[in-house]
Design a protein that fits this description.
With 164 residues, the chain is an alpha/beta fold. The protein has one domain: Cobalt-precorrin-4 Transmethylase, domain 1. Helix content is 40%, strand content 14%. It has a five-stranded parallel beta sheet with strand order 3-2-4-1-5, sandwiched between helices. Strand 2, helix 2 and strand 3 form a beta-alpha-beta unit.
């Protein structure tokens, strides 16, 4: 593995999203969402089946790693904090301290980076971690990327949409 790249869907259109993956030479795409569907017509390209179909045409392997998705209980903690601060999910720029603490304790503390490396395989060079938030610091994918970057000594790149 050479590097971990993170990407969210908010702020992208279909063309720019997939072009960003091609431009960063992604060969393995890791979907770390619990629910792999998107509401509304704007982001239908990120619904699991359509996403996988497009990735196949680009020669990018798709892996769903549900173990890295935050539980509903942990997600609810972030929703409560967002509501308290009057922030909409799509405009959030950072994760709350409670979410970070609980996600780290509940998911990352028992996640084995060596097993991740085996899961993506020896031919994976540039790996994308995908969830929906536009800002990487507002999403658990940044926590996963930091964890893997430290454990596997990989560089990390965060792709931001041109709109966010």
């Amino acid at each position: 593995m050479d590097k971990i790249v993170t990407i969210g869907v908010y702020g992208f259109d279909k063309t720019r999203f997939f072009q960003a993956l091609v431009d960063t030479r992604i060969d393995t795409f890791c979907d770390i969402r619990l629910r792999r569907g998107m509401r509304g017509s704007k982001y239908t390209f990120a619904n699991s089946e359509r996403l996988q179909e497009e990735l196949r045409t680009l020669g990018i392997r798709y892996i769903h790693i549900k173990e890295l998705a935050p539980s509903i209980a942990i997600r609810d903690k972030q929703k409560q904090e967002d509501a308290k601060l009057g922030i909409a999910k799509r405009s959030r720029e950072i994760l709350g301290a409670t979410f970070i603490q609980e996600y780290t304790a509940g998911c990352l503390s028992c996640f084995n980076s060596a097993q991740f490396s085996e899961m993506v395989g020896p031919h994976a060079r540039n790996i994308a971690l995908f969830c929906v938030e536009g800002h990487h610091d507002a999403c658990h994918r940044s926590l996963v990327a930091n964890h893997l970057g430290q454990d596997l000594q990989l560089s990390i790149e965060h792709i931001r949409s041109p709109v966010v």
